[in-house]
Structures are given as C-alpha cells and as structure tokens.
Specification:
The protein is of the alpha+beta class. It has 2 helices and 5 strands. Strands 1, 2, 3, 4 and 5 form a 5-stranded antiparallel beta sheet that branches. The longest helix is centred in the N-terminal third of the chain and has 9 residues, at 21-29. The radius of gyration is 15 Å and the shape is globular.
Length: 118
C-alpha cells in the first residue's frame, strides 16, 4: 500500500493473526464474535450492532467497571468499503447510545481536539 492509497487523515491498522482468514473476518463483522474479543482486559461489549455493507452502520458499547460503578463508552460508524474477506473500511466516532456522534468537548476532552467528519 502506498501513501496515495489512503486519505491523509486515515488510520490503517494492520496485524497478522495465526488464524484462518474467515475467522478473523468474523471477529470484525459478526456481533457475537466481536463481543467476545474486542476491547481492553476487563471490558465487556454489551451492544454490537453491525450492518456490514457499504453504507451500513455500526453501534458498539464498551463497558468498564470502575470504583464509581459501570462506565459505558459508545461508538458509531459507517461501512465505506466491504470486500469479504480482504478489506473492511469504516468510520469510527464517539457517540451516544442512539448513534448520535458526540463531539470531543461533550466527552470532556480539551478544546481543540479533532472533530470527526460528519
């Protein structure tokens, strides 16, 4: 892949797994598989809605237990490119539980934090 293949603000994540390609694809596209592996240690994924098709949306909730009780973080995005099982391109933004994109300021981040494209 060359620098000209991706937009300047794109993040490309690449990793090799000792697993069949079909299983890795399911880990990213099947809600039950996604819930089983996604997130840091101690996190759960109580919600993973995925309409994996170009123009489809995703809504994911990550929950962590804290001393003050459970904390939920919501993320939404749109699938831009789906080439099974080779390439999956989607946007990812912080959101509320309804999929409304939430600004970084609303999340308590400092002024000037990058805002996701709408």
């Amino acid at each position: 892949m060359t620098d000209n293949d991706e937009p300047q603000n794109a993040v490309v994540i690449e990793r090799r797994f000792n697993a069949p390609v079909g299983l890795v694809w399911k880990m990213w596209t099947d809600p039950e598989h996604f819930k089983a592996w996604y997130g840091p240690t101690g996190a759960t994924i109580p919600v993973a809605r995925m309409d994996v098709r170009v123009g489809g949306t995703r809504l994911v909730c990550m929950e962590m237990q804290t001393p003050k009780g459970p904390m939920q973080m919501w993320f939404t995005g749109e699938y831009l490119e789906v080439v099974e099982p080779e390439r999956l391109v989607f946007t990812d933004s912080m959101s509320d539980e309804n999929g409304r994109v939430v600004s970084p300021t609303e999340m308590g981040m400092p002024e000037g934090h990058p805002t996701p494209p709408r």
